[in-house]
Amino acid sequence: MTERRFDTLAVHAGEEPDPATGALDPPVVLSSAFAFADAEDAAGRFEGTRSGPIYTRWRNPSVEALERKIAALEGAESCVALASGMAAVHAALTAFPAAGDHVVAGGSLYAETARLLRGHLARFGLETSFVDTTDPSAVEAAMTPRTRVVYVETPANPTLAITDIAEVARIAHEHGARLVVDSTFATPYHQRPLALGADLAVHSATKALGGHGDAIGGVVSGAWADVECVREEGVRTCGAPLAPLSAMLIARGVRTLALRMERASASALALAERLAGDPRVERGL
Ligand SMILES: *Cc1c(COP(=O)(O)O)cnc(C)c1O
Questions:
Q1: Does the structure show a pLDDT above 90 at 225?
Q2: 64 lines ligand 1 (CB under 6 A)
Q3: Where do the structural domains in the chain lie, given as residue ranges?
Q4: Distant-in-sequence, close-in-space partners of 274: CB < 8 Å, separation ≥ 6
Q5: Fold for the domain defined by 60-276
Q6: Does the pTM of the predicted model rise above 0.70?
């Protein structure tokens, strides 16, 4: 297989010409349910020994096209797409621990993620220690025998705090926990958490991945078995699949991700340099 560059993957990965019509731009499949060839085919699909969708709540061809594209960009074995970034965060956080278990989370998190951990998950018996993950020794000190997940957002929204993913992954794994990274701000263009040792990479696809402000969605990438657990939890059981039309809009947005991130980064650098050289501006943090 020839190796494709990120920009090329962003355009082509996950999207095959439609076998039925030959359409280069695959049609959006809105159908909620799918026909089986016969009873044996149905049994095989339910058992997972045959491929093919059954019901859009847990698999849909348009959503799977986006999942393949994100997995390719993230360098992941697999990806699952969900109804929002928060659905993705929730599923990634709840797929593995049980009541009585412990989470170590960054002190600087997207507001709803902090609320999810402090309120909703605490009510169901999952305890969280919030620590400054920019200091790996603080993560190490917070680990307990019940810690199942270390959860960091890097760069964090909105503080832009940066955590050393490789170092925190090493600490998490030493204690038998998984590292989940919310990588929304960086996108896979700038940062691939899995290559640095994280177990799951989470994104709000609503932001830079979709890039056009017209679709809400979330994605979780990682090893196939882990992603299947997240799919079971967030999509099949809790019922938060990504809508096929939103999958198409997000996949279309991702095609221009490299171009948009290059321009956004150049604009941010120009702005930072201008502000740094202005005597009226003081460093705030
Ligand atoms: C926006 C955002 C989320 C939540 O995503 P939604 O798609 O709005 O549910 C989670 N994490 C980060 C870092 C975000 O910026």
A1: yes
A2: no
A3: 60-276
A4: none
A5: Aspartate Aminotransferase; domain 2 (3.40.640)
A6: yes
